Amino acid sequence: MFDFLIVGAGFAGCVLAERIASKLNKSVLLIDGRGHIGGNAYDYYNEDGILVHKYGPHIFHTDNKRVFDYLSQFTKWRIFELRVTASVDGHKVPIPINLDTINELYGFNFNEKQLVEFFKGVAKEISPITNSEEIILSKVGEELYSKFFKYYTKKQWDLWPSELDASVCARIPIRTNRDNRYFSDKYQVMPKHGYTEMFKKMINHPNIHLMLQTDFLAIKEIIPYKYIIYTGPIDSFFNYKLGKLPYRSLRFSFQTLDQEYFQDTGIVNYPYEYDFTRITEFKHLTGQKHTKTTIAFEYPTAQGEPYYPIPQASNWNLYQKYQTEAEKIKNIWFIGRLGTYQYLNMDQAVAQALDFFENTLKKVK
Amino acid sequence: MFDFLIVGAGFAGCVLAERIASKLNKSVLLIDGRGHIGGNAYDYYNEDGILVHKYGPHIFHTDNKRVFDYLSQFTKWRIFELRVTASVDGHKVPIPINLDTINELYGFNFNEKQLVEFFKGVAKEISPITNSEEIILSKVGEELYSKFFKYYTKKQWDLWPSELDASVCARIPIRTNRDNRYFSDKYQVMPKHGYTEMFKKMINHPNIHLMLQTDFLAIKEIIPYKYIIYTGPIDSFFNYKLGKLPYRSLRFSFQTLDQEYFQDTGIVNYPYEYDFTRITEFKHLTGQKHTKTTIAFEYPTAQGEPYYPIPQASNWNLYQKYQTEAEKIKNIWFIGRLGTYQYLNMDQAVAQALDFFENTLKKVK
Q: How many domains are there within chain B?
């Protein structure tokens, strides 16, 4: 009899396995349907020996010292401040939009104060703001909205910004200074030897047993356990009985080139050209030196592995119904990005799992 | 209920999991006490991104076309003919001993016929041959025995050749031609993307569930199954009730150097100097290009992971007793290097597993 069956070996599942094993001294069976740990943060050396992220670029950033300290037990870090450029009108300009972006794009020589005035001049007054189109128009107006947001969002979600909650585009800052880092968090780092190595260390404990290539359904009647922690899609647990929760997925097309570098930064976005949204060059992210380089073209898709909950009210409503069902079942908890149907950055997934451990699991007999 | 529980995810375990899953369409739970598959053939990219063999150099070689064809389903190959040199009297000379070895060591300019005469002149006549010292003395005499065999064997086994079955040193050829390859098999290849990748492909089947960091004892009462295939040490299954079967172990000390290469060949042996027996430089084996290089010093030890059954009659006798016990138990088979307490090269382990599948498992209901 295992004390805990944890379904899913991504951030939520691995953090909880580690906490339960090392702090509660309980036995854990950690399972995953895939053949590897790490969830979508899984990285590996490809056939040319280049470290790549199988499910797209994962750049760690957090303001949460507790999360940073917790993960620091399992990895050393490499300082890495992500810069992203967008290919717009034949220019590669830094994003999120900042002072340099506007000056480069229009050939201005604005200072910060002038940029504030410029934004005021082009912004539309909209009240109340009800969707992602309106929030961007209200900040930077029609032209920048079109160049940077409108078509990118359509590619990313197959929805126009007007069809998406305001929160989606609200997450993207508009800066008036020259900070051209993609994130502004206090800790901007990459696990020095990769995410998979970090996860391996995290779950390397005699109380943790790892089972791969194994769906929950394949073993739930076979292997006895006291409690379940389910980090997979909550609707899958209920066999989709109330309907399917939609997820946006991604497809990656990898290419290894016989040249040292392909582009100047880790990620270049293509806001309105091409079918892909961006190109990642992994060596910028990992710091690896190699005579070749691997890049990945990123194509948003409707089908495939679940990546992003689709931020629309109808989906939140359906999720709430599943959550009500879940509360009726004893000895099971749903957690993580898929288990709680919400977009969580990596650090948020860790924080959610640590909180859940402290507030709930520690009180379980 | 799993049809088969396979204990150990090395060559024997993975081959059988694959055969059972794909040919018998039965379900398999494949478990391993370690956190990875591949047994002692496991390779991985280390912290500097260099592909290394965690448990020492594994070079694939076989004359068995069936084994080669079988494994070719799961990997492409890189042709690699291992050359080994030995550091003797300040020279790096090729081994196994051949025409070049003797000419370089003594400054001779022998042809093949002259070398045959030379060996005849130095060889000792011994009959009957009862141990490893006698078989070498009978081929090349005292001086070459001392330089190449005597102290190397002592380091390797902590036994003098006189204490070891003749079969141990008999395996090492003495050549009179100029073939300086370490092996003479028809197929001398390395899995192009490493052993671990090959194993991953092999067991990537929906009927196979993989459980890591899990000893047999931890789950044998918990998880139901019909049959067991046990590839771990046979004495461990019986809780050592008749005594412990001894194994020789190895310890590896890895170093990554900031230079492109360290030595000219994949392996250099040190027959009588130092405490290590040999130094492996992995880039020669894998063909990887990298600005740095990782080498491993190999130290034989008495304690540690089981590597080699110790080839002495008393150990075979003890193994026979365990085998008799094993035959009394229904629905379990012991197989592989550890399960049958015999030194098997990788190809021999595969052949043993394929034979076992054809002759025994296919007849099981």
A: 2
| A288–B49 C-beta distance less than 8 A | yes
Within-domain flag for B50 = no
* Inter-chain CB proximity A203 and B193 less than 8 Å: no
Residue B203: list chain A partners with CB under 8 A.
213
Q: Is the pLDDT of residue A365 over 80?
A: no
**Each residue of A80-136: pLDDT tens digit?**
999 999 999 999 999 999 999 999 999 999 999 999 999 999 999 998 998 999 999
If you compute the radius of gyration of chain B from its CA atoms, what whole number of angstroms results? 22
Q: What is the complex's ipTM, to 2 decimals? A: 0.79
Assign residue A340 the CATH number of its domain: 3.40.50.720
SS3 readout for B162-230? HHCCHHHHHCCCCCCCCCCCCCCCCEEEEECCCHHHHHHHHCCCCCEEEEECCCHHHHCCCCCEEEEEE
> Which of A210, A216, A282 to mutate against chain B (most B CBs within 10 Å)?
A210
Q: What is the mean pLDDT of residues A31-41?
A: 97
| Residue A65 is assigned to a structural domain of this protein | no
DSSP assigned state of B199: H
Of A209, A224, A289, the CB nearest to B291: A289
Contact A204 B213 (CB under 8 A): yes
- From CA A54, how far away is CA A72, in angstroms rounded? 23
Q: Cβ contact (<8 Å) for A223 and B222?
A: yes
Residue A14 lies in a domain: yes
Residues A104 and A151 in one domain: yes
Say whether B214 and A213 touch across the interface (CB within 8 A): no
Whether B363 shows a pLDDT value over 90: the answer reads no
Which of the listed residues A147, A170, A193 is the one where a domain comes to its end? A170
Same structural domain for residues A336 and A208? yes
In one letter, which amino acid is A51?
L
Stretch A145-151: mean pLDDT, rounded? 96
Would you place residue A181 in the very low, low, confident or very high pLDDT band (cuts 50, 70, 90)? very high
B109-152 tens-digit pLDDT: 999 999 999 999 999 999 899 899 999 999 999 999 999 999 99
Are B212 and A214 an interchain contact pair (Cβ–Cβ within 8 Å)? no
Q: Considering only CB atoms, which chain B residues are within 8 Å of A51? A: 45, 49
Q: Considering only CB atoms, which chain B residues are within 8 Å of A76?
A: none
- pTM of the shown model: 0.87
Give the model's pLDDT for residue A362.
Answer: 86
**B286 to chain A: nearest residue by CA?**
A49
Per-state percent for chain A, helix, strand, coil, to nearest 5: 35, 20, 40
Range(s) of the domain holding residue B118: 96-170
What would the two tokens of residue B79 be?
Answer: 């042709």
Q: Tell whether B137 is covered by a domain.
A: yes
Which runs of consecutive H residues, i.e. helices, occur in A268-312? 282-286
Whether residues B207 and B321 share a domain: the answer is: yes
A210 and A156 within one domain: no
Q: Which residue in A209, A222, A224 is closest to B1 by CB distance?
A: A222
